[in-house]
Design the sequence.
């Protein structure tokens, strides 16, 4: 902090403490860091997930768990470029599968909505 050898430690500490900024915590009850300064994320209505079957939910949870495991593997083997490349290829395949699953679910939801609309008429 200082190059002079005759400066006392107490003076160095007091110099450092004066430079430490003081912060105020801004929080609301809904979100721990909610404030107009932060980007607000939209709340998701739970009814959007009611159409998912238990099998689909289980598959999604398995996907998230395997992604987490793969990330931890990547951090352990970051020095082995072939292992990292293989894991990235697996991740890309998983993402493509997730996109396909998402499109299938959207088509299924559209079909069900059309059937409900026909039944309501």
Sequence:
């Amino acid at each position: 902090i200082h190059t002079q050898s005759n400066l006392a430690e107490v003076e160095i500490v007091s110099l450092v403490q004066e430079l430490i900024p003081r912060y105020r915590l801004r929080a609301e009850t809904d979100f721990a860091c909610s404030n107009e300064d932060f980007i607000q994320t939209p709340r998701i209505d739970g009814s959007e997930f009611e159409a998912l079957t238990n099998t689909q939910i289980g598959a999604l949870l398995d996907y998230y768990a395997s992604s987490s495991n793969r990330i931890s593997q990547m951090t352990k083997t970051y020095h082995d470029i072939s292992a990292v490349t293989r894991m990235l290829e697996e991740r890309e395949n998983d993402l493509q599968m997730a996109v396909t699953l998402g499109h299938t679910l959207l088509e299924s939801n559209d079909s069900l909505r059309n059937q409900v609309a026909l039944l309501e008429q």
Summary: The mean pLDDT is 70. Residues 46-120 form one domain. DSSP finds three helices and no strands in the chain. The helical segments are 9-19, 54-76, 81-120.
